[in-house]
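Example 4.3 (complexes with small molecules)
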Amino acid sequence: MKGKFIALEGPDGSGKSTMMNLINQYLVEHKIDHIVTREPGGTAIGEKIRHLIVDRDNDNMGPETEALLFAASRAQHVHEKILPALEDGKIVVCDRFLLSSLAYQGVGRGLGIEEVKAINDFGLRGTYPDLILFFHVDPEVTLLRKTKEGGDRLEAEGGMFHKGVYEGYMNLLKKYPENITVIDASKPIDEVYKQTVEAINNLLKFEEEKI
Ligand code: TYD
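Answer. The structure with thymidine-5'-diphosphate bound is encoded below.
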Protein backbone atom coordinates (compact mmCIF):
# COMPACT_ATOMS: atom_id res chain seq x y z
CA MET A 1 0.00 0.00 0.00
CA LYS A 2 1.15 3.50 -0.79
CA GLY A 3 1.78 5.81 2.19
CA LYS A 4 0.62 9.36 2.72
CA PHE A 5 2.53 12.58 2.26
CA ILE A 6 1.95 15.53 4.61
CA ALA A 7 3.74 18.87 4.10
CA LEU A 8 3.91 21.76 6.59
CA GLU A 9 3.96 25.24 5.11
CA GLY A 10 3.95 28.81 6.32
CA PRO A 11 6.03 31.98 6.59
CA ASP A 12 9.26 32.14 8.59
CA GLY A 13 8.57 32.00 12.32
CA SER A 14 5.08 30.51 12.07
CA GLY A 15 5.94 27.78 14.60
CA LYS A 16 6.15 24.91 12.11
CA SER A 17 9.24 23.37 13.69
CA THR A 18 7.62 23.11 17.13
CA MET A 19 4.58 21.50 15.52
CA MET A 20 6.82 19.07 13.57
CA ASN A 21 8.17 17.75 16.87
CA LEU A 22 4.69 17.36 18.32
CA ILE A 23 3.40 15.59 15.18
CA ASN A 24 6.37 13.23 15.39
CA GLN A 25 5.54 12.44 19.04
CA TYR A 26 1.86 11.91 18.15
CA LEU A 27 2.68 9.43 15.37
CA VAL A 28 5.17 7.58 17.60
CA GLU A 29 2.57 7.30 20.39
CA HIS A 30 0.00 5.94 17.93
CA LYS A 31 2.54 3.52 16.44
CA ILE A 32 2.07 4.92 12.96
CA ASP A 33 4.96 4.02 10.68
CA HIS A 34 6.36 7.36 9.51
CA ILE A 35 9.36 9.56 8.78
CA VAL A 36 9.85 13.27 9.49
CA THR A 37 12.04 15.33 7.22
CA ARG A 38 12.60 18.91 6.09
CA GLU A 39 13.45 21.22 3.22
CA PRO A 40 15.80 22.58 2.15
CA GLY A 41 17.86 19.51 3.03
CA GLY A 42 16.52 16.15 4.12
CA THR A 43 19.39 14.20 2.50
CA ALA A 44 23.19 14.50 2.67
CA ILE A 45 23.26 16.07 -0.81
CA GLY A 46 20.29 18.29 0.06
CA GLU A 47 22.01 19.53 3.24
CA LYS A 48 25.02 20.59 1.18
CA ILE A 49 22.74 22.46 -1.20
CA ARG A 50 20.93 24.00 1.80
CA HIS A 51 24.22 25.31 3.10
CA LEU A 52 24.89 27.06 -0.24
CA ILE A 53 21.43 28.59 -0.26
CA VAL A 54 21.27 29.98 3.28
CA ASP A 55 24.91 31.12 3.57
CA ARG A 56 24.90 34.88 4.13
CA ASP A 57 28.20 35.13 2.19
CA ASN A 58 26.28 34.19 -0.96
CA ASP A 59 24.41 37.46 -1.23
CA ASN A 60 25.23 37.73 -4.95
CA MET A 61 23.24 34.55 -5.77
CA GLY A 62 20.82 35.14 -8.66
CA PRO A 63 17.13 34.37 -8.06
CA GLU A 64 17.09 31.75 -10.84
CA THR A 65 20.11 29.99 -9.29
CA GLU A 66 18.37 30.02 -5.91
CA ALA A 67 15.17 28.55 -7.40
CA LEU A 68 17.11 25.82 -9.24
CA LEU A 69 19.06 24.90 -6.09
CA PHE A 70 15.85 24.53 -4.08
CA ALA A 71 14.41 22.41 -6.92
CA ALA A 72 17.58 20.27 -7.07
CA SER A 73 17.52 19.69 -3.31
CA ARG A 74 13.83 18.71 -3.58
CA ALA A 75 14.44 16.34 -6.52
CA GLN A 76 17.10 14.51 -4.49
CA HIS A 77 14.82 14.44 -1.46
CA VAL A 78 11.99 12.83 -3.47
CA HIS A 79 14.34 10.39 -5.19
CA GLU A 80 16.28 9.29 -2.11
CA LYS A 81 13.84 9.58 0.76
CA ILE A 82 10.23 10.60 0.14
CA LEU A 83 9.26 8.27 -2.70
CA PRO A 84 10.89 5.15 -1.19
CA ALA A 85 9.14 5.83 2.15
CA LEU A 86 5.75 6.29 0.43
CA GLU A 87 6.27 3.11 -1.57
CA ASP A 88 6.96 1.38 1.75
CA GLY A 89 3.54 2.52 2.98
CA LYS A 90 4.92 5.09 5.43
CA ILE A 91 3.50 8.47 6.41
CA VAL A 92 5.96 11.18 5.35
CA VAL A 93 5.85 14.48 7.25
CA CYS A 94 7.92 17.21 5.63
CA ASP A 95 8.71 20.70 6.95
CA ARG A 96 8.25 22.82 3.74
CA PHE A 97 7.87 21.50 0.19
CA LEU A 98 6.88 22.81 -3.26
CA LEU A 99 4.55 25.55 -1.96
CA SER A 100 7.55 27.24 -0.26
CA SER A 101 9.31 27.60 -3.61
CA LEU A 102 6.16 28.93 -5.27
CA ALA A 103 5.73 31.55 -2.51
CA TYR A 104 9.41 32.49 -1.85
CA GLN A 105 10.92 32.20 -5.33
CA GLY A 106 7.78 32.48 -7.47
CA VAL A 107 6.31 35.50 -5.70
CA GLY A 108 8.93 36.78 -3.20
CA ARG A 109 11.68 36.80 -5.83
CA GLY A 110 9.23 37.60 -8.63
CA LEU A 111 10.12 34.62 -10.84
CA GLY A 112 6.49 33.62 -11.40
CA ILE A 113 4.48 30.79 -9.84
CA GLU A 114 4.09 28.83 -13.10
CA GLU A 115 7.78 29.18 -14.00
CA VAL A 116 8.94 27.92 -10.60
CA LYS A 117 6.36 25.13 -10.65
CA ALA A 118 7.67 23.97 -14.05
CA ILE A 119 11.30 23.58 -12.89
CA ASN A 120 10.11 21.73 -9.78
CA ASP A 121 7.70 19.41 -11.60
CA PHE A 122 10.66 18.07 -13.56
CA GLY A 123 12.22 16.71 -10.36
CA LEU A 124 9.06 15.66 -8.54
CA ARG A 125 7.98 12.81 -10.82
CA GLY A 126 4.36 13.29 -9.78
CA THR A 127 5.05 13.26 -6.04
CA TYR A 128 2.80 15.86 -4.37
CA PRO A 129 1.49 16.09 -0.80
CA ASP A 130 -1.84 14.46 0.07
CA LEU A 131 -2.27 17.09 2.78
CA ILE A 132 -0.67 20.52 3.21
CA LEU A 133 -0.96 22.07 6.67
CA PHE A 134 -0.62 25.81 6.26
CA PHE A 135 0.34 27.63 9.49
CA HIS A 136 -1.17 31.06 9.23
CA VAL A 137 0.24 33.89 11.33
CA ASP A 138 0.22 37.64 10.81
CA PRO A 139 3.45 38.32 8.82
CA GLU A 140 4.50 41.30 10.92
CA VAL A 141 4.54 39.17 14.07
CA THR A 142 6.60 36.36 12.54
CA LEU A 143 9.11 38.64 10.87
CA LEU A 144 9.77 40.51 14.08
CA ARG A 145 10.46 37.21 15.85
CA LYS A 146 13.00 36.07 13.23
CA THR A 147 14.91 39.28 12.52
CA LYS A 148 15.55 39.66 16.25
CA GLU A 149 17.48 36.38 16.19
CA GLY A 150 19.63 37.32 13.18
CA GLY A 151 18.47 34.69 10.70
CA ASP A 152 19.86 33.14 7.49
CA ARG A 153 20.15 34.70 4.00
CA LEU A 154 16.44 34.31 3.24
CA GLU A 155 15.24 35.37 6.68
CA ALA A 156 17.51 38.41 6.54
CA GLU A 157 15.66 39.70 3.46
CA GLY A 158 13.71 42.89 4.06
CA GLY A 159 10.07 43.33 4.98
CA MET A 160 9.03 43.81 1.33
CA PHE A 161 10.32 40.35 0.42
CA HIS A 162 8.49 38.68 3.31
CA LYS A 163 5.34 40.65 2.57
CA GLY A 164 5.56 39.29 -0.99
CA VAL A 165 6.02 35.75 0.34
CA TYR A 166 2.97 36.15 2.59
CA GLU A 167 0.84 37.48 -0.27
CA GLY A 168 2.17 34.69 -2.46
CA TYR A 169 0.99 32.11 0.06
CA MET A 170 -2.43 33.79 0.23
CA ASN A 171 -2.75 33.55 -3.57
CA LEU A 172 -1.65 29.93 -3.53
CA LEU A 173 -4.29 29.05 -0.93
CA LYS A 174 -6.90 30.32 -3.38
CA LYS A 175 -5.25 28.74 -6.41
CA TYR A 176 -4.74 25.24 -4.94
CA PRO A 177 -7.32 24.92 -2.14
CA GLU A 178 -8.01 21.19 -2.64
CA ASN A 179 -5.71 19.56 -0.13
CA ILE A 180 -4.64 22.55 1.96
CA THR A 181 -5.83 22.90 5.57
CA VAL A 182 -5.27 26.33 7.10
CA ILE A 183 -4.23 26.22 10.76
CA ASP A 184 -4.61 29.36 12.85
CA ALA A 185 -1.07 29.46 14.27
CA SER A 186 -1.64 32.69 16.20
CA LYS A 187 -3.58 30.65 18.80
CA PRO A 188 -1.93 29.14 21.93
CA ILE A 189 0.18 26.09 21.19
CA ASP A 190 -2.30 23.51 22.54
CA GLU A 191 -5.01 24.86 20.24
CA VAL A 192 -2.66 24.85 17.24
CA TYR A 193 -1.80 21.24 18.11
CA LYS A 194 -5.49 20.30 18.33
CA GLN A 195 -6.21 21.74 14.87
CA THR A 196 -3.14 19.97 13.46
CA VAL A 197 -4.01 16.54 14.87
CA GLU A 198 -7.59 16.87 13.68
CA ALA A 199 -6.42 17.50 10.10
CA ILE A 200 -4.03 14.54 10.22
CA ASN A 201 -6.69 12.23 11.66
CA ASN A 202 -9.11 13.27 8.93
CA LEU A 203 -6.61 12.26 6.29
CA LEU A 204 -5.68 8.95 7.91
CA LYS A 205 -9.25 7.96 8.86
CA PHE A 206 -10.52 8.78 5.40
CA GLU A 207 -7.90 6.48 3.95
CA GLU A 208 -8.80 3.65 6.34
CA GLU A 209 -12.45 3.91 5.31
CA LYS A 210 -11.51 3.62 1.66
CA ILE A 211 -9.58 0.37 2.15
P1 TYD B 1 14.77 26.92 7.02
O1 TYD B 1 16.08 27.27 7.59
O2 TYD B 1 14.35 25.51 7.04
O3 TYD B 1 13.72 27.89 7.68
P2 TYD B 1 12.47 27.59 8.58
O4 TYD B 1 12.99 26.89 9.78
O5 TYD B 1 11.94 28.97 8.85
O6 TYD B 1 11.54 26.77 7.74
O7 TYD B 1 14.67 27.39 5.51
C1 TYD B 1 15.49 28.38 5.05
C2 TYD B 1 14.76 29.41 4.27
O8 TYD B 1 14.49 28.94 2.97
C3 TYD B 1 13.42 29.87 4.83
O9 TYD B 1 13.47 31.29 4.92
C4 TYD B 1 12.43 29.49 3.77
C5 TYD B 1 13.24 29.40 2.53
N1 TYD B 1 12.76 28.51 1.46
C6 TYD B 1 12.58 29.03 0.17
O10 TYD B 1 12.80 30.22 -0.07
N2 TYD B 1 12.19 28.18 -0.83
C7 TYD B 1 11.96 26.86 -0.61
O11 TYD B 1 11.60 26.10 -1.55
C8 TYD B 1 12.15 26.34 0.72
C9 TYD B 1 11.94 24.88 1.00
C10 TYD B 1 12.56 27.20 1.72
